Amino acid sequence: MSAWLDAAGMALRVRIEALLRGEALGPEGLDALACEIAAWQRDHNPVYARLWRAERGHLGDVTGVDDIPAVPTDVFKAAEVASFDRRARVREFLTSGTSQEVRGRHAFADTSLYAEGACRGAARWLLPQPKYRMVLVAESEADAPHSSLTFMLARFAERWALGAAPFVVRGSSLDLGALSQVLDTAQESGDPVALLGTSFGFVHLVDALGDRRWEVARHSVAMFTGGFKGRSREVDAGALGAMVRAQFGAALRVAAEYGMTELSSQAYDAESVGRYEAPRWMRVRAVDPVSLAPLGAGAVGLLRVVDLCNLGSVVAVQTSDLGRCFDDGSFEVLGRAPGATPRGCARALDALLAP
Amino acid sequence: MNARVEAIARVRDALAGEASEALFAASAQDSALHPWVIEEGWRTALARFSDEALAARVSARWAGRHVSVVLGRSVVVAPWRAMVLPLLEGAARVTVKPSRAQGAVPRFLAARLAEAGLPVGEGPFADADVVIAYGSDAGLRAIATGLPPSVTFLGHGHGLGVALWGHGVTDDEVDATALDIARFDQQGCLSPQAVLVCGAVEVEAARLSRALERVALRLPRRRLDPGAGAALAQWAGRMALKAERVWRGAHSLVVACAQGEIEGSPGDRAIAVIGVEGPTAACSRLAPHAPHLTVLGCAGQGLEGLQVPGFTGRTVRVGAMQDPPFDGPEDRRGA
């Protein structure tokens, strides 16, 4: 499982696993571990080394977590951002997009850290009960082998599902029969239900169910994630939560997840209060859009994520998401940064090579 | 002096004088540029419209015809030239259709020209004899295909400028290149989108980075919205994959690439400095972009006799890239 790691990488992995288990970090703390991971990745990842040198002017170590060169998400579209030999790749997740678009790629030599981190984060904020009747509002692993969300949901099902946990999205249709079966069973047994999936999937689900209603048991939860990307009508998160509760019962807790293909960890807004909390192995900072310098609490900037579970790729990722962070470590997501102000008569970037 | 030239000159003088504040306010509305950049842009542009330059463009090219000027997004000073030229060329009437995103300056200018007794107004191009359109290739195609065959169509597409540094580039030339980049925050079709250098690329890129920060003291970059900031950050990341170095200044972003193809820029003073073996290699690198290349800004030595296949734009010294002669077309494809 860890054959792709050399001794130094293995030592880092052991420390990350300890962190996931909740063990105390050494006196050096998370920052130092992040810096060590970054340095190891620089030495094993030619793409990262190139970016590191270009950004810093040298390949020397960093001493603070904010100095770690963060890899912009677009780089995942342009290159394989992997800290292992290509032959060791066992899985690759792709960002969503059409076949015409260039999609970001996040390769893995080992998905066990991802799975472990995801499950531990979910256990704290999303699925605190021992078992749930589960419905997964996404495509299955067989149908969507490159979806990181599907991968995560499948691991949740392995750990928490009572009985079958159907993926109810089948291409452009929904398997309402499978969904009804799970919900009917849960209603009879009184088991809590977990409905987990994409925001646009929930919109289609609510639309398709029409007048059908359930009253799920206490401790039930619905989690949606991601934007709509033109795949359904746009529904405000609050409105979507209300729609879902109207359909499945007032006892349903509505949570939101913040994750992305380029990361291995997730943050949760467990009660839909508008603030996400990240696990201790993930740190989110708002940075100035121009200087990329960290901003103070409450200031709006671009979100930059340090994710220690990204051992096989890069520990720091620069997103194009707008948000603000607070002193308690929580953060608010304000959506994708709006498109840059349209240019004047300068020929657009994407048109340059289409003369 | 021709009556139209006199009327246009009166408007020009007003724009440079008592009407300048209103003009700058309209320009800020249309561009978000820093006020000093707007002021410098108009001062330089209006200076080109001397009485002699205006008189030299007088002709009967569009005599008796209704000319519609359809504007796309542009640098803020461009609508002035677009409106004035058909007036000088004898149009019986000029109807302006501003772009959706930039209406303040064209409307302001049209109103001033009309007040001076010139036959200018705002409106659609439905009944025009001549349509002169500015915009993207797709926008121009859409307009052209919708016109009856009897209508004369002239399309001016978007373009780009490139600076080329030979050997021995002086500090003044570095500053002049920075000025070309800073003007209109690289939004124009005459703005340099890349700098090709024959010298040591990291050294030259560092010089340009410092010069861009220097020029920003008098021509600051516009305040970037988060979307623009994100675009710069993502572009820098992509470029860093092939770059030797990235310089992130308060008002600029410079990447140094020892080699490689010309890469577009997201604007806002983000520029790639790309190494080339020499002028011949530079010409090969430029050739694929020749149809859209509006201006080539040269600096240093050894660039004499430069021949870029298919290039019909202007070749100037750096510092003059954004300063086209009034009587010469900026985009020769549609002239």
Structural features, described:
The complex is a heterodimer of chains A (355) and B (335). Chain A is built from 9 helices and 14 strands. Chain A has 355 residues and is α/β, with parallel strands linked by helices. In chain A, 49% of the residues are buried. With 335 residues, chain B is α/β, with parallel strands linked by helices. Chain B has 2 domains: 155 residues, Aldehyde Dehydrogenase, Chain A, domain 1, CATH 3.40.605; 158 residues, Aldehyde Dehydrogenase, Chain A, domain 2. Chain B has a 7-stranded mixed β-sheet, with helices on both faces. At the A-B interface, helix 3, strand 1, helix 4, strand 12 and strand 13 of A face helix 10 and strand 8 of B.
Q: Runs of chain A with pLDDT <50, length 5+? A: none
Strands of the widest sheet of chain B, in order across it, are 8-9-10-7-6-11-12
* Pair of chains with the largest interface and how many residues each contributes: A-B, 44 and 61 residues
Per the principal axes of the C-alpha atoms, what is the gross shape of chain B?
Answer: globular
For the termini of chain B, the CA-CA separation is 26 Å
Question: Average pLDDT of chain B, to the nearest integer?
Answer: 92
In DSSP terms (H or I, runs of 4 or more residues), the helix count of chain A works out at: 9
CATH topology of the largest domain in chain B: Aldehyde Dehydrogenase, Chain A, domain 2
* Helix coverage percent of chain A: 25-40%
User: Helical segment tally of chain B?
Assistant: 11
Present the secondary structure layout:
The complex is a heterodimer of chains A (355) and B (335).
Chain A (H helix, E strand, L loop, with lengths): L6 H14 L8 H16 L1 H11 L14 E2 L2 H4 L12 E4 L10 E4 L3 H14 L7 E5 L10 H13 L8 E2 L2 E2 L1 H14 L3 E6 H11 L11 E5 L11 H12 L4 E6 L8 E3 L12 E6 L12 E8 L8 E10 L5 E6 L19
Helix pairs in contact in A: 1-2, 2-3, 5-6, 8-9
Chain B lengths: L2 H14 L3 H12 L3 H13 L3 H6 L9 E5 L7 H11 L4 E5 L6 H12 L4 E3 L7 E6 L1 H9 L6 E6 L2 E6 L5 H12 L9 E6 L3 H15 L10 H15 L4 E4 L4 E5 L12 E6 L3 H8 L6 E7 L14 E4 L18
Helix pairs in contact in B: 2-6, 8-9
